[in-house]
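Think of the structure tokens as a kind of shorthand, similar to the way a musician reads notation: each symbol stands for something richer, in this case the local conformation of the backbone. In the example below we present two proteins back to back. Begin with the first one, reading the sequence and then the tokens, and try to describe in your own words what changes along the chain.
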Amino acid sequence: MKLHIQYSTSINKIKDIFHNSYPYLKIEFFKKPHVQGEPNALIDMVKHNIPVGEINSVFKESAVSINPDDSVAKVEQCFRDIFGLSIQVFRKQKDVWIETTHTDHLTLSEQNNMGKEACSPVMKEERPDRYLEDGEYQ
């Protein structure tokens, strides 16, 4: 996926494009970067749908290619280096979104698959109705 981001591009548009490519992942925008290995402060999360140029006054328009085999850390670093934007990737874990802070070394594909597995219903193991001695069953 190639993202062309301009000053007027809304954060929701970027988030939607990313989420459509990786349905068990999402990105959130923050006013400042977090310390490596630590979660972002929720107070720094950009909560409104605004143009990316309003998040960072020195924003520079450009494009970024995001591939399934890119690590989360690489994607987050690209947004910082190319656009001056701080993002964090989150993974779906059942009914909640968790920051991938401790698994940033994994690829987007691996993270998305982990989210898919975590959200898949657990299959009941088939068991026989009647057991005989020594584990035999009817």
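Once you have a description of the first chain, move to the second and do the same.
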Amino acid sequence: MKRLLLSSRGSYITDGACGLFDRPRNELRWAYVMTASKSVPDRTYIELHQKRMDDLGWNYDVLDLDGKTPDQLRAILSDKDAINMEGGNAFYLIRSIRQSGFTQVLHEFLQRGGIYCGASAGSYVACPTMETATWKIPQRFDRHGVTDFTAMNLVPFLIVAHVTPEIEEMVRPKMEQAKYPVKLLSDRQALQVRDDEVELLKDTNVLPKELGG
């Protein structure tokens, strides 16, 4: 069974209501992929997110995809139950995913029962394309030469993260022209995916600006 949790912020992964996990999250063995944060101007959110995981007693290893081979990734993930793919620069992240061969390794991980959790950029790269990363503020991040926005195609829709009423109005024309359906996520929302079943989750206890992601 394919199990995914796709959110706007990493705080939903640590604290949000979700029925994907068969035991408490601090009893799972996690790989925390921080690669997307390597090309952002302010990495404070990474420090906040790691502090939150530490405070919650999470068992996790930090994973950088850069410089890794598929076999190295398989070895790292061999004893893991779940992946926490943190947000940041989606262009840098998809480049690292391609260079490391992560997509194939992730498919194998999901097939054996692993859970993929993505926040922001980590959600964008789970879609058929990550084109929505260009919709709001196209020049916010260095695109690192990425012109092909094809992503990992774990779900048959696109995601726009960090949605507010103003952002929804801004992206609506692009949604109408997109090849794939588009799902909008506020900072307190996430999508729970079990194979072909997709459920929109909302947890008002998740404070969007107090935790990183």
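Compare your description with these statements about the second chain. Residues 132 and 160 are 6 Å apart (CA to CA).
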